[in-house]
Amino acid sequence: MSSILTLRQSVLAIGLAFGTSATTPSVFAAEADTEEPAPQVLPEVRLQAERESVGEQRLDKRQIEAMNGIDGNITSLLRINPSVQFDNKQQASATQGELAPADISINGAKFYDNLYQMDGMSLNNDIGPNSSNPASNTTPPSASQGFAVDTSLLCDVTVLDSNIGAEYGRFKGGVVKANTCAPTRKLAGQVSVESTRSSWMQYKLSDSQRESAANSATADLQPAFEKWTYRAALQGKVTENFSLIGSFIRKTSEIPLNGYGNGLQSASDANRKVQKRGSDNAFVRGFWTITPGVLADFSLMHAPSSGDYFIANTRNSSYHLKSGGNGINLGLTHPVGWLGNATAEHRLSWNRMDSSRDADATVWKAWRYSSDKNWGVKTGTGATGWASNEGGYGDIDQEQESAQYQGKLKWEPLELLGMSHTFQAGLELGTQHSRYQRNTTYEQYTASANTATCNMLGGGVDTQYCSLATPWNAASSVRGQYLASRIIYYAGGYELSNKTRGAFLQDDVKAGDVRVRLGVRYDTDDLSPKSTVAPRLSAFWDVAGKGTTQVELGANRYYGRNFFNFYAQSKRLALQTSPQTRTLSGGLLKDWAAPVMASNWSWLKLGGMKVPYTDEKLLGISQQWGGVKWSAKRVLREGRDEMVYHVVSAANFYWDNVGRSNSKVWTLSAETMRPLRWGGSATQVQFGYDRTRTTSTHATYDDSLSDLTNELDKFIYYQGKFVRWADRPADNYNRPWTARLLLSTDVPAYRLKVDNFFRMRGPETNMIATGEALPFDGDVAKVYQDVSTSKSFTWDMRVQYALPKTGWGAGFVNLGIENVSNRSNPLFDAGNGVVFEKGRQFTLELGYRF
């Protein structure tokens, strides 16, 4: 413990001396990073496989180091990709104490429609991935990425954003693949500690946020935080044919807040409370060369995440959220002689993910302030202006357990009819099991009413939901209060199971300088209304026959996953009662009537569901010129049959496929093929630019589209023309343009690496109603106008310095600075209007590698 404290103190001391902090290197650094090089020796130039398509981007270990964000998660690396857009909340200044990975949209798709893999194992979580409210009384929050993977584990990350082959299915956005590397030496390792905190960050707050920040009682506005990350890793070749890597990473964040809002103090409860976030990642992976050509690998992952919260202005309201989980991954590659010259790849994986809550209390009571309910503070005016709430939402366990087998055969090229054919075929079999269990009955009591007695009409005294202490600001004739309304959520649960089956067949046909990829994918599962067949067609023309100029065409269909949430919501609603009220009779309290189960669960139905899909058309070109690999592409996507909450009529709600979206994305990318050398330095340059326009009927599947207000067919007047309400621009993940520039410089003589990432984003635009209307087609169309923010510019810097080698290895210091220029960048937040991204922020890491 003393060594950890000493290490923490060292980080703080250096951070304060610099006024700064830093980001993280890869856990497994190359040997050249630990040995002191000879002066003026340039780093090795690593050649990587050519990208097959303009719809593919691969980040190697050096690029991962360069793009590593302060929280070290996979999605932070993708800021360089011009086809990726981030959630507005990702950089919001008010919530920088959080650790969760940012949500991303790929080519306009919803953030929960991507496929995430690590070493071939799915990381996707299908337990209500849009559930983000930590204070929901029925459903703990969840996330589309089931495991929060630290980037220090990774060797490379590949993003497939368009023209994606038939091998991948059950997504409508893109595929993000992360891989760890096999060890290359007998023994190597690393330990480090990293920190950042609110005092190392410049807050950029709106006027309303600035006024309430010091007295904030909610995690939506975090005036202070402190983050620590501890990393330890070891890798080595146990034998010539068997090697292991292992790592342990712990991340913590503490967010002190007021227990009660408005700057007032509770008389009998803690006025300062600390929320906490944490995640652990214990990972082991092994590689075994059984015989030449026969390779096996395995990995074990234990990656739980957690959060400690409380309900603002409420006594005895602490609760603990659990997410993440465990995974096992097995792989085998071997030749298959009896099928011709083919190679078989097998992968068997299992994981279990949590989205659960443990609460201190299972009863919620909304009292008015009184002498015996004296912990509350003023929250409004009038008789209910001082509230003394107490209690919590009870315990809920949510789990998703998945197992999957993936098998793939790839043949060597075969000459047939004067053309070269490279065949691939694959099979996928999987099971998913979801469990929801409310472990404790939760009772919610509200609607404080006046009373002069707590005596019950049928005899006895109500001591639980009645008090004879006079409420604040009550009339002189009022003696006490009782709680007059309740809803009960009974203990109970449900389980849902699904079996998935998929297969694909693909042929790469090459004739001269033209290559055509013909693929088809079949998917079905027990929850789908029908099976799907998705064509994947691509054509590539090597114009000069030298690989320097390639023109690419694509026409592809991608089918999405069916979420358990659509089947589960009515089952959750079936656990609750209808609201009840009680009154006084002859001055005495009536007893509660027998609870009656709510019927609104029956309002919610599964319509004639279809499987959501996206049709994609692509035109692209790549060119090698001037030592630079250039690529440009145009992607058109039409999302159809998208699932959404559809209000057909009163008490007649459906999950069905009335949603749709359209995206038009144009991107330009450039990357140096060789480092630019000057003096003793070598610099790689990477550039990306996009122009994006996305329209959508809905932001998420939880949005409701209503026939009662004719939303699907209603016209509005916007940007000088009449358009359907359903075709309005998306209000998130929809920056009109973004330019990105990454400069990665190595100066080996000084053991120094410097990365500069510049990002300029176009003005964000939202719609607001003007209150006016215009006649249109026998009806009226509401008039909307644009409200735009200014352009956003950020400059992020990362400096990695390796100390001279001592003993077995060498120490290192990493300094990260985000938003170096401390620019105020506005963004829209659905609940708070225009807010701002964070200002300049420092992170510092100290470590030792050998």
Secondary-structure topology with pairs:
Layout: H1 2-18, E1 56-59, H2 61-67, E2 84-86, E3 104-106, E4 115-118, E5 121-122, E6 156-160, E7 175-179, E8 188-197, H3 207-212, E9 226-237, E10 242-258, E11 272-291, E12 294-309, E13 314-315, E14 319-336, E15 342-359, E16 363-368, E17 377-378, E18 386-391, E19 396-411, E20 414-416, E21 419-438, E22 442-451, E23 466-467, E24 480-489, E25 492-511, E26 514-525, E27 532-542, E28 549-559, H4 564-573, E29 580-581, E30 584-585, E31 588-589, E32 604-606, E33 613-625, E34 628-649, E35 652-672, E36 676-678, E37 681-696, E38 704-706, E39 715-718, E40 721-724, E41 737-747, E42 752-761, E43 765-776, E44 779-788, E45 792-802, E46 810-818, E47 826-829, E48 833-836, E49 841-849
Question: Would you mind describing this structure in some detail?
Answer:
There is one protein chain. The chain has 850 residues and is mainly beta. The protein has a single domain (2-38, 56-806, 820-837), classed as Beta Barrel (Maltoporin, Chain A), CATH 2.40.170. It has four helices and 49 strands. The strands form seven sheets. The chain has a 22-stranded antiparallel β-barrel. Strands 13, 16, 17, 18, 22, 23, 24 and 29 form an eight-stranded mixed sheet that branches. The protein has a five-stranded mixed sheet with strand order 1-6-7-4-5. A hairpin with a 2-residue loop joins strand 20 and strand 21. The radius of gyration is 29 Å and the shape is globular. Mean pLDDT is 90; it is low at 1-49.
